[in-house]
Amino acid sequence: MGKNMVKKILIVDDDSGVNYTVKNGLEGLDADYKVESVESGEECLEFLQNDDIPDLILLDIMMPEMSGWETYNRIKENLSWKSIPIVFLTARKDRIAKSAGDFFGDDYIEKPFKIPELKQRIEKILKS
After folding, report:
1. Residue 45: domain span
2. Residue 14 lies in a domain
3. Which residues contact 84 (CB under 8 A, 6 or more apart)?
4. Does the residue 79 lie in any domain?
5. Could you check whether the bond before residue 85 is cis, i.e. omega within 30 degrees of 0?
6. Which residues have C-beta within 8 Å of that of residue 119, sequence separation ≥ 6?
7. What domain count does the chain have?
8. What string of pLDDT tens digits covers the 128 residues of the chain?
9. What is the number of other CB atoms lying within 10 angstroms of the CB of residue 13?
10. In terms of Cα–Cα distance, which of 8, 83, 72, 87 is closest to 41?
């Protein structure tokens, strides 16, 4: 159980309830998870600028001001961040969002989701 076993996950969602659920759910399922949360795209970029690079970002698409797409583009434009895997979170059920999520992100998960399923998806990406 070395220190490098810790998986740092950043969740970006303007719904603090979702952030709370994911943090408690993932950390509760597995002590190797450390979940940080921010509530906007701007806060996400600030977090990354402080050189706190997570192993994976869970990114909500529908956020006020800076959308998940825009946040995604800003992350991918930065050389030190562009390799961070990104999983989109969205409540939208339409196929356009789904195919865009599949196309751009490393994965895509629809709300409401079950934490064990989320964890499985995260692990699949971190292994690849």
Report:
1. 3-115
2. yes
3. 53, 54, 55, 56, 57, 75
4. yes
5. no
6. 25, 26, 29, 30, 33
7. 1
8. 445 589 999 999 999 999 999 999 999 999 999 999 999 999 999 999 997 899 999 999 888 899 898 999 999 999 999 999 999 988 766 555 556 655 667 788 888 899 999 999 999 999 98
9. 25
10. 72
